[in-house]
Amino acid sequence: MGRKKSRQGNGSGTVSKRKDGRWEAKLSFRESGGKLRRLTVYGKTAAEARAKLVELQDRFNKGILAEPSSVTVREFAQGWLERETQGKAANTKRLYRQELEHALGILGDMKLQAVKPSHVRAMVDRMQSEGWTPRPTKRNPDPTPRPYSARTIKKALERLRGLFQDALRLEVIHRNPVEAVRFKAPPAEPVGRSLEPSEALALFEAADRHRAGLVVQLLLLTGLRRGEALALRWRDIDLEANPPYLRVVGNWTRAEKDHMSRLKTPRAKRTVPLAPELAERLRRRKESLLSDYPAQAVEGWFVFALPGADHPYTPTYTANVLEALCREAGIPRIRTHDLRHSYGSLLLARGEKLERVSELMGHANPVITLSVYRHLISDERNTPPLSLSDFITGSRAQA
């Protein structure tokens, strides 16, 4: 007995009953290259199969009917990463790969078109319950699994969402399965802090007693990012100007290996004045080098490096120096980036304008400065009004 067919019009597809009792709907169309394609969907009833056919036709008419593909999520991710990170700094590219790899470790082998919201939800649940296991080392051949942080899960979802959004634009898929998944991260705890003036002074003095302490002093009194400071060469510092200054022109970063990369933003290329105390210490360091080496050679050398080295101190070494100085100064341990945060905080605390602080720190725009230091500006609004004695003495009376 042949199949019972219900024609839906010329070129609009067919609905027919199968021998197993199910109903199937077929849609035929030609791809952009001229190849004939047939898509088949099934239903328990003719009405269900016909409804699915109408959905196919609607997607086809809108131009979002994806072509079948055997490409996996990991295979598609290779091209997406290349397109998405084109023109970005090497360190940004590294972070994108790391963040996406957390998701690819679970969904990477699935067919791109087969991923559903339920798969993404299961991925998030698995990351929360199982965590991740560090690579074995000689010291720790059997590492203990660690929980994923909320930020890591959020970033993995963010990169995965971008990947599927790109596939949607290219009409490889007809919906983004990540959009339906929600992950509510708990409120983030403050990661860093700003040094108190007394702590900053103690750290600065402790740095005088360390052979590599000058890099910490410069980070504290200029607000440079660590990579910007490590990229400095002596030719980038003018100690004869009044006042002395340095030019931020590069960024030493760690991706697959340490190397020079572009600055984070166009406004990061800037000129920063030097405090007299810092200029004096830089001058003494340079004079010491000039007493032993030709001036032309010294000008091209990295400021924070062994004499004549083709690379500066590593970021890890700089962090270790800071940790040692914190112990010597008797202050709690801080991150390298907290030196930059302290610089911005102290500038605003002494009344420097937001736009000027943004310029000195190389932020893309003052809005970023405002978002980071809003709490300080809010505190200023709560400052008591000036008293008569303030006008007489020219400064606020001490409580």
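That was protein one. Protein two is written in the same sequence-then-structure order:
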Amino acid sequence: MVSMRNSGWAMTCVGGAGVLLTAVMSYTYAPLVQSPPFRSPEAYRILFWHVPFAWTSFLAFCLLFVGAIAWFLKRKEWGWNLFSTGSDLGLLFGLGVVISGPIWGSAEWGVPWDWGDLRLNTFGLLTAVALFIVLSRRSQPDGMDTRDTLSTIGLFGFSLVPITAIATTVYQKRHPSVVITQSDETGLDPKMLQVLIIGICSFWILMIGLSILTFLSYKLEYKLKNLLMSIDDEVVH
């Protein structure tokens, strides 16, 4: 467990440093958008955090999905811990998306949110599901019924992930497509692509580190709970 904890801290620090580097490079290295549809060529730089936030949140919801399935099939504590970890990180990175997106939207569209855009609303609902799960876990008594209910809600939330991912190309209104500037090979200016790749990799490393630390914290919490129950039983008898 000590080695896992050290690995978690190391990856969190490396990922965090990469995230900060991405922010610096987005202003000092990445060029302005040279695309007519973009009305705010400077404001677009927030996308170097916004896009990695979104992709990383999808990975977090995958942890939530795997944890929910493991809980239903195995009834093991590690499955519930994985579900809890996924919901915590899904909320963290999901909030990063719904906060950074409206900042860019205000500059580009003149409004922070478009209630007629499918992708925006499905992701907003996805983040709301994660918020509900996190708050419910902390406010409701822990038990089989609570875990089953929240796991079911988590599976519903995960069903929004493919809908949100596909919505940009299938139903695009205000939200930009996956192509930011025109290019025959990648659809991105090479410098923009480099910064975006650094950002995505950094966020993924950060998420792995946070996942390890969060999972271990829930594991220790479970051991402490069992230890306290054992002590109480000994005192009673």
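Residues 2-28+44-236 form one domain. Keep this in mind for the problem set.
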